[in-house]
Amino acid sequence: AQSVTQLDSQVPVFEEAPVELRCNYSSSVSVYLFWYVQYPNQGLQLLLKYLSGSTLVKGINGFEAEFNKSQTSFHLRKPSVHISDTAEYFCAVSYGGATNKLIFGTGTLLAVQP
Amino acid sequence: AAGVIQSPRHLIKEKRETATLKCYPIPRHDTVYWYQQGPGQDPQFLISFYEKMQSDKGSIPDRFSAQQFSDYHSELNMSSLELGDSALYFCASSLRTGQETQYFGPGTRLLVL
Predict the structure, then answer these.
(1) Across the interface, which of A36, A101, A106 has its CB nearest the CB of B58?
(2) Of B42, B106, B107, which has the smallest distance from its Cβ to A104's Cβ?
(3) Which of B5, B7, B24, B73 has its CA 20 to 30 A from that of B95?
(4) b/e map of B8-26 (b: 16 or more CB within 10 Å)?
(5) Quick one: pLDDT at residue A30?
(6) Are the C-beta atoms of A43 and B106 separated by less than 8 Å?
C-alpha cells in the first residue's frame, strides 16, 4: 500500500539551531512530494513541493527539502529555526494518475525552545 | 489572493443529528478534495470531485455523502453523527491540469456531543 513515514513524532530544538525533519515514502514510478505546516488551531499551509526537475526544492520561511529517489526520502531542512517555526509538519505524497489525493504522514511536531 | 473558503468554521452537533459542511474553492479551480483530521492524527482523504463528478473515494463512511455543484462549490453531508466523527474537516482545491498543488481551506471543526 502507498504510505508515507515520518520517523519522528516530535523534534525539540533550540532557537537558531539547524533542524531536519525526516520523511520516507513507498516507492513508485512517479511521485509528487509536499510538505505542509499546520500551526495550532489552523489549516494546512504549503511549505514546498517537488513535482520534477531539480531535486533540491526551496520553500517559504527558509525551508528546503531534497528529493532522493534511491532512498525514497524527502527530508525537510532549515539552517536556523525560530520560535515561530513551532508547529506540526506533515509530509504528503501523491502518486498521480486518475487521482491527486494526498497521502499524509503522521506528522512531526517541531518544538523550538529559546 | 483568494483562498479556499469553508463554512461554518465551527459546528456542534448531537449524536444522530446531521451536518452539512460547505467548501468554496479558489476561483477557476475545478477540483475539490475533502479530508478528515481526527484529534492528534494526520489528515485522511475522504472524497474528491472534478467537474462535478466524483473522481476518487477514500475512507468515507456510508453515512457521509458529498457533491460538487455547477459553481464548483462542494458540500459534505454527514448523517447519523457519531462521537467519532468529531474532527477537523478540510477542503482543498486545485486545477486538474497535471499535478497541481492542493490548497487547503482553514477547516471546519465539528464536535459531536
Answers:
(1) A101
(2) B42
(3) B7
(4) eeebebeeeeebebbbbbb
(5) 76
(6) yes
Q: Which amino acid is at A66?
A: E
Contact between chains at B43 and A104 (C-beta distance less than 8 A): yes
Query: According to the model, what pLDDT value does residue A100 have?
Result: 79
Residues on chain B touching A102 (C-beta within 8 angstroms): 33, 35, 43, 45, 92, 102
Beta bridge partners of B87: B110
Task: Name residue B104's amino acid.
Answer: F
Per-residue pLDDT tens digits for B80-96: 999 999 999 999 998 87
Helix (H/G/I), strand (E/B), else coil: A27: coil
Question: Residue B101: how many CB atoms within 10 A of its CB?
Answer: 16
**Distance (Å) from the C-alpha of residue B85 to the closest C-alpha of chain A?**
18
Contacts of A82 (CB under 8 A, 6+ apart): A15, A16, A112
pLDDT at A76 over 80: yes
Task: Give CA–CA dist B32/B21, Å, rounded.
Answer: 13
